[in-house]
Recover the amino acids of this structure.
């Protein structure tokens, strides 16, 4: 919407009070989100200036559009979640004095192989959310799965895939902008292309996304080791290190690309997909596959795939072909009818599978979902107790797995700097797009609120120059982070050289660009210190410490030729 409005000459305003048009992107997925959306809409409607327009968009309006019109007096327009592209028309109608313009409906159900129009009329707008060096790229919207607890199909409608060419165009654009990580998202990425008539559509898309031809001149230009020059390989160093150990600035496209697949559906991870993940170096060895439960009876009541043998055999196959695979999953505890025995089966399963990451939700009752007739019979204290037992079990497993990385070198995408007040902007603080709040999410326990050791920069004088990043094992905003600092000998050597070098260079101590310049007027010299330019880059980091969710490490300026991702 922002892009369509910008094309029409609208400008973003920081202050709702001064804006001519206020657009609220609502969420209606669960009760608390609905309450908050109504609260915000009500407040804004009450404070509306004469001539100001208030538009509600998003999930709440998709499902409860008529209720929004009734409960928010003064609302001027209502857009369903799949009709964001109509924003300009709605504003034009309102300009002509059209009164309330509710435009909301679900897309039609497309038959297999018959392209659906609704949801594809994107008007050339990229479906992207970029934060630093990382981006979410939407490949489909809506869901045709029958999960009994989930309101998303009611809100978003059935699955509609974006045309492959549009996705590839967006990927090319992201790489041209220096984005180093593309996270593919949809409610169910493994369903990509079904409505386009594609077989194994996700595998096909990944094949095309990892074809160097797609990126043309954006391929790696040069590094010192040919074995590490292919597009998408791990870097041999942050970028082309000079003999003095400093790392010189370079074009953003010299770094590798990470492609991450989120939200796979059990039963739909095909052999072809596993092979593509195992053999294409750009695809990170990470998979997020929400399983929701492990007891077949609970899964049947959830209307989820109940063939737990498939899960065992597929994960075993994946781990054989991709030994350094990081697996994330999500469970719901306290689902109606979950007995203590069923819950114990889930605990045993988690213990046996040793997932790298586990998110857990307590069941939230939603009217209108297929599970509504089952009610919400499990008391909140039982849900809480099961939640705690599961998270405690996983805490120990995560810690043990993380400890196996100490001493190894991992490529890390740097996203923030602790002392700059921009702690892991994508890693923790930002908002994960709300595509799949039940299917994937997962709450991070509160013991690591900052994603590190919990120390605030102001209380930690040694935090200067500390960088925050993620390894391939960490999806943005949901998994852990890697807290990175330079080793002390690197700091000293780097400091010494900074005074004499005439070139622009990244200082290993603080990750900033240091540019030595000579004044043309009087010949005097000074060092200009630029912004932190490690941010948005993938650098090798030697892991020195492990917690349950996060890792500590030091920059490894010469570690590129022996980057080791094995466990
Ligand atoms: S839980 Fe995920 S896969 Fe199931 S219906 Fe909801 S969005 Fe679809």
């Amino acid at each position: 919407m922002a892009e369509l409005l910008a094309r029409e000459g609208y400008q973003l305003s920081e202050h709702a009070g001064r804006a001519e048009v206020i657009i609220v992107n609502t969420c209606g997925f669960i009760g608390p989100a609905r309450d908050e959306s109504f609260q915000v809409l009500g407040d804004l409607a009450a404070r509306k200036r004469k001539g100001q327009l208030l538009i509600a968009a998003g999930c709440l309006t998709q499902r409860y559009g008529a209720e929004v019109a009734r409960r928010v007096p003064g609302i001027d327009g209502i857009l369903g979640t799949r009709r964001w592209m109509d924003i300009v028309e709605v504003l034009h109608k309102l300009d002509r004095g059209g009164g309330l313009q509710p435009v909301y409906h679900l897309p039609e159900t497309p038959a297999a192989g018959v392209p659906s129009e609704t949801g594809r009329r994107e008007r050339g707008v990229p479906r992207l959310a970029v934060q630093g060096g990382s981006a979410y790229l939407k490949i489909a919207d809506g869901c045709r799965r029958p999960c009994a607890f989930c309101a998303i199909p009611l809100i978003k409608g059935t699955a509609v895939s974006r045309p492959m060419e549009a996705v590839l165009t967006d990927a090319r654009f992201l790489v041209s902008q220096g984005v180093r990580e593309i996270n593919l998202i949809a409610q169910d990425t493994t369903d990509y292309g079904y409505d386009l008539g594609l077989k194994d559509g996700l595998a096909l898309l990944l094949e095309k996304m990892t074809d160097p031809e797609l990126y043309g001149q954006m391929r790696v230009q040069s590094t010192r080791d040919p074995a590490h020059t292919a597009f998408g390989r791990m870097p041999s160093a942050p970028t082309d290190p000079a003999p003095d150990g400093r790392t010189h600035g370079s074009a953003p496209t010299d770094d590798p690309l990470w492609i991450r697949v989120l939200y796979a559906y059990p039963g739909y991870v095909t052999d072809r997909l596993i092979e593509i993940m195992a053999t294409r170096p750009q695809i990170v060895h990470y998979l997020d596959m929400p399983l929701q439960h492990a007891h077949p009876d609970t899964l049947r009541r959830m209307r989820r795939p109940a063939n737990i043998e498939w899960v065992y055999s597929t994960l075993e196959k994946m781990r054989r072909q991709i030994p350094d695979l990081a697996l994330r999953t999500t469970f719901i505890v306290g689902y109606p009818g979950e007995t203590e025995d069923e819950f114990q089966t889930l605990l045993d399963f988690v213990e046996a599978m040793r997932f790298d990451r586990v998110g857990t939700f307590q069941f939230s009752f939603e009217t209108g979902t297929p599970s509504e007739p089952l009610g919400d019979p499990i008391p909140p204290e039982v849900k809480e107790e099961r939640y705690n037992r599961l998270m405690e079990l996983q805490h120990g497993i995560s810690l043990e797995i993380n400890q196996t990385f100490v001493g190894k070198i991992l490529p890390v995408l740097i996203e923030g700097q602790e002392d700059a007040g921009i702690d892991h902007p994508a890693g923790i603080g930002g908002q994960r797009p709300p595509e799949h709040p039940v299917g994937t999410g997962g709450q991070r326990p509160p013991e690591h609120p900052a994603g590190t050791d919990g120390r605030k920069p102001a209380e930690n004088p040694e935090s200067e120059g500390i960088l925050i990043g993620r390894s391939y094992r960490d999806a943005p905003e949901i998994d852990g982070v890697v807290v990175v600092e330079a080793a002390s000998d690197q700091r000293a050597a780097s400091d010494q050289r900074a005074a004499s070098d005439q070139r622009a260079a990244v200082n290993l101590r603080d990750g900033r660009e240091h540019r030595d310049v000579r004044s043309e007027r009087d010949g005097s010299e000074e060092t200009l210190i630029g912004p932190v330019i490690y941010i948005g880059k993938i650098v090798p980091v030697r892991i020195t410490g492990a917690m349950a969710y996060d890792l500590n490490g030091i920059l490894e300026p010469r570690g590129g030729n022996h980057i080791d991702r094995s466990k």
